[in-house]
Each structure stands twice: as C-alpha cells, then as structure tokens.
Design goal:
7 strands, three-stranded mixed sheet
Length: about 130
C-alpha cells in the first residue's frame, strides 16, 4: 500500500537506540545502510526511514498523525510497547483490545523520543494465533 514512510529525528544516535529494539520486536530488520538515515523494512518492499530533516530545520512530529506497524501477533504488540518504553519512548496507550475499531483489534501506542506517535497492531483473533503456534 505504501512505498516508504519517513520520520524525522533531531538525534540519529538516540533514534537508533530507540528504533532498533522497537522494530526488532516486530521482526523488522535493516535491509541496508544509508548515510544520514536508519532504514527498516525490506530491500524492495515497504520501508521506514528515520532521518534528520533534509532541509536542515529541526524535526517535529505531526499533530494527528501516527505510523502504525502491523504486528504478527499480540505478543509482538506487547514486546513493541515494552521495547519502546525501555528505550526512551513514552506511553500513549497500553497494549489491549480496541473493539471500537473491530472485535479483534489489538494495539498499543507510544511516542518516540522526538515525539512521533507510533503504533503496533495485530488484527488476528486470539484463537488464530493459537492455531498457528503463537
């Protein structure tokens, strides 16, 4: 559905300390190195770029926007939230069901150290997870 998403940071080292364990909790890796950026995703598929803004101005988060990452199961949502809080993020909504979206919507919300709002979400029923072993 999308090629890539870019989020700004004012401190690339701090962002790496935050994003590497958070994305690892979702099973997302760094497909290649890029000077001035941290890249997650796949070589030819969707990617997340964490960069200092190209225009040299300070990075700032958007009001009313967030990036939602698909989690393979509810345990990954929990791990995403825990990793975010352990690496400088802040809580914006603990892991849990959000039935106002749909009956099996299990998500968690955090802010990264630059204030960007992030989410991990699993749309699978709990019994679907058990059927596939997790």
């Amino acid at each position: 559905m999308f090629s890539h998403l870019t989020l700004g940071t004012n401190d690339l080292d701090r962002a790496g300390h935050f994003y590497r364990p958070v994305m690892a909790a979702l099973g997302v890796t760094e497909p290649f190195d890029m000077p001035g950026a941290i890249v997650f995703g796949s070589l030819t598929g969707p990617k997340l770029f964490i960069v200092t803004p190209f225009d040299g101005a300070a990075a700032s988060q958007g009001n009313g926007t967030h990036a939602a990452f698909l989690a393979p199961d509810r345990a990954a949502v929990d791990a995403f939230h825990a990793a975010a809080l352990a690496h400088g993020g802040s809580d914006e909504g603990a892991p849990g069901l959000r039935p106002h979206y749909h009956a099996h919507y299990y998500g968690a919300y955090v802010r990264d150290p630059d204030g960007n709002k992030l989410q991990a979400v699993c749309h699978r029923r709990a019994d679907e997870e058990a059927d596939r072993g997790g």
